[in-house]
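Weekly sync, protein design subgroup
Attendees: M.S., D.O., the rotation student, P.L. (late)

Item 1: inverse folding check
M.S. brought a backbone from last month's batch and wanted to see whether the design step gives back something sensible before we order anything. D.O. pointed out we never logged the input encoding, so this time it goes straight into the notes. Structure tokens as presented (302 positions):
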């Protein structure tokens, strides 16, 4: 009997200990997880992208440096006229902005300092607008290409822009010589290409003097159509011999171009060219005759 009582006491003690152990385990498993990571942690973890974009919109200062891409990536500049490639960076903080030329991966500027021996490249900072512009002095057509604005994050992020350096081209259709019959209308068409914007003014001159459209001669007018390609038409009605001469188209922001107008009095252009040739041949014949006379006198025939 004494042994049975001892076994019963041991069993009771074991049951009590097991119950306490179970209760302690259930408390650990069922206790709620109260730790909440800080908001900024979400931006570097693998949460839903839409949620991250929402969070960045609500807290723009938490998203780090980024580019304002509202400006155009394409910049056109005239040969010799200073070019600006504008890079707008938000939330730069303690990062730096660099400019790199893609053609040869040449580092041009870092911050406000120029890192190339070509001093035509300069960094211009406008703190009010968060702009870091690359200034190119006296650009040439060889400077055309891709340039990258880069932020010194880890890894670096960049924004590429295309610079096109163009030389305006001015042409007059039908030049360099135009042949017009007396009494007909002279129509000179001047075309200006490769300008970032239309020239403010196009002037016409006749033999070096600006044409007066209100002169007593009358019948002279100009029509100019501006656009990506600008065209100026000089119209001269009832052409006469005094209208012959050198006409020059002078765009205010491009090179001039000249054409020679010949008003014919019943002549054919080929006849004019032929008479010029005959006059040239006559001069040559006279020179040869003089030389012959000199030779004969120097060496008289005996």
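Designed sequence read out in the meeting:
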């Amino acid at each position: 009997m004494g042994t049975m009582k001892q076994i019963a006491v041991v069993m009771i003690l074991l049951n009590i200990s097991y119950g306490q152990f179970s209760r302690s385990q259930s408390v650990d498993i069922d206790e709620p997880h109260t730790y909440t990571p800080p908001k900024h942690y979400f931006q570097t973890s693998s949460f839903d992208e839409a949620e991250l974009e929402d969070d960045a919109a609500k807290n723009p200062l938490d998203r780090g440096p980024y580019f304002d891409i509202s400006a155009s990536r394409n910049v056109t500049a005239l040969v010799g006229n200073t070019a600006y490639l504008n890079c707008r960076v938000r939330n730069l903080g303690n990062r730096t902005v660099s400019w790199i030329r893609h053609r040869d991966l040449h580092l041009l500027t870092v911050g406000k300092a120029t890192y190339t021996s070509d001093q035509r490249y300069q960094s211009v900072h406008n703190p009010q607008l968060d702009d870091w512009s690359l200034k190119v002095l006296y650009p040439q057509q060889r400077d055309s290409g891709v340039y990258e604005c880069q932020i010194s994050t880890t890894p670096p992020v960049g924004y590429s822009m295309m610079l096109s350096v163009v030389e305006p081209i001015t042409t007059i259709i039908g030049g360099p010589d135009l042949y017009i019959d007396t009494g007909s209308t002279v129509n000179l068409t001047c075309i200006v290409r490769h300008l970032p914007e239309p020239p403010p003014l196009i002037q016409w001159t006749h033999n070096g003097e600006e044409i007066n459209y209100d002169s007593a001669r009358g019948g002279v007018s100009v029509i100019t159509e501006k656009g990506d390609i600008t065209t100026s038409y000089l119209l001269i009605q009832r052409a006469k011999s005094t209208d012959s001469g050198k006409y020059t188209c002078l765009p205010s922001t491009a090179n001039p171009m000249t054409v020679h107008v010949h008003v014919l009095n019943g002549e054919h252009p080929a006849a004019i060219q032929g008479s010029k040739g005959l006059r040239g041949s006559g001069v040559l014949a006279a020179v040869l005759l003089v030389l012959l006379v000199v030779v004969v006198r120097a060496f008289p025939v005996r």
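Discussion: Confidence is low (pLDDT under 50) at residues 16-56, 271-281. The first strand starts at residue 66 and ends at 67.
Action: P.L. to compare against the previous round before Friday.
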